Amino acid sequence: MLYAEQIRAARALLTWGQTDLADNGNVGIATVRRLEARPGRLTGNAETVWKIQKALEGAGIVFINEDDSGGPGVRLRHPLET
């Protein structure tokens, strides 16, 4: 289960704009805007959500599920290069 907040945070880590996500996920920019506009769990077409998740994971994002120690989040698969 993905949350709009995770998608926005993932884009920030990658320094991607909404257009970058739309292009890499092969979805429309209006779709990205709509999904990110409503806080909470992503709703809509499961295939679209899957495309967005796969695009972000392919770029190095790891999604962290909510558990007893905290809420959902994201992190980079590899450390930042300095």
Widest sheet: strand order? Answer: 1-2
Please count the helical segments.
4
User: Helix and strand succession?
Assistant: HHHHEE
User: CATH homologous superfamily?
Assistant: lambda repressor-like DNA-binding domains
| Count of structural domains | 1
Mean pLDDT: 94
CATH architecture: Orthogonal Bundle
The portion of residues assigned to helices is: 40-55%
The major sheet is characterized as: 2 strands, antiparallel
Could you tell me the CATH topology label. 434 Repressor (Amino-terminal Domain)
CATH class type:
Mainly Alpha
Strand content: 5-15%
Low-confidence stretches: none
Overall shape: it is globular
Intertermini distance? 32 Å
E-strand count: 2
Structure classification:
mainly alpha
Tell me the radius of gyration.
Answer: 12 Å
What is this structure's SSE topology?
Layout lengths: L3 H11 L3 H8 L3 H9 L8 H13 L2 E4 L8 E4 L6
Antiparallel strand pairs: 1-2
Please provide a written account of the structure.
It contains 4 helices and 2 strands; from the N terminus they run H-H-H-H-E-E. With 82 residues, it is mainly α. The protein has a single domain, classed as 434 Repressor (Amino-terminal Domain) (Orthogonal Bundle), CATH 1.10.260. Strands 1-2 form a two-stranded antiparallel ribbon. It is globular, with a radius of gyration of 12 Å.
